[in-house]
Amino acid sequence: MNKRKNSISQKKQVFTTDMLFDLIKSPVFNFKSYNMLSEKKQYTFDVDLRLTKPQIQSLFLQAFGVNVIEVNTLIPPRKKRKYTAIAGYKNRFKRVFLTLKEDQSIPYVDSLMSSFLEQMLQKMASQNAAASTDQPSSQESAQNAAASTDQPSSQESPPTQPS
Questions:
Q1: CA-CA distance, 129 to 124, in Å (whole number)?
Q2: pLDDT value at 94 more than 50
Q3: Which GO terms describe its biological process (predicted)?
Q4: Which of 81, 112, 134, 156 to pair with 93, CA 20 to 30 A apart?
Q5: Are strands 42-47 and 24-27 parallel, antiparallel or unpaired?
Q6: What residues are paired with 82 via a beta bridge?
Q7: Residues of the domain holding 99
């Protein structure tokens, strides 16, 4: 058993700086991450599952030149996906929440986040406009309903029979 434990501990991977840049998968853009960025100055990224907190901290120091105060990580549960007859799982990742110093930021992510927010607001505005044109106003529908009940039904002509 001792040999097995030793062989497992020896298989730990050591990442070089060139590899670290490839391990950032993407920044996360959603309303929750925007609120965290604006209120708490926390950035959200998806990174490789194998990275540890010290490695993540050094990675962002080298990649973006920012001092990270705190690193919080989360590994979400794996989700099933099913296409045609083949069922599988989505890829695993680690979500990282980085707290930076007050005077520091990542301008690239800030610009992407602002453009994301503008797109979402435009999309919501167009959906609201489409919903308001599809449904008549409540006053118009109430007037139409009252007008249809006021008309006598005797004006309708009975169906004619063919001779």
A1: 9
A2: yes
A3: translation
A4: 112
A5: antiparallel
A6: 87
A7: 11-134
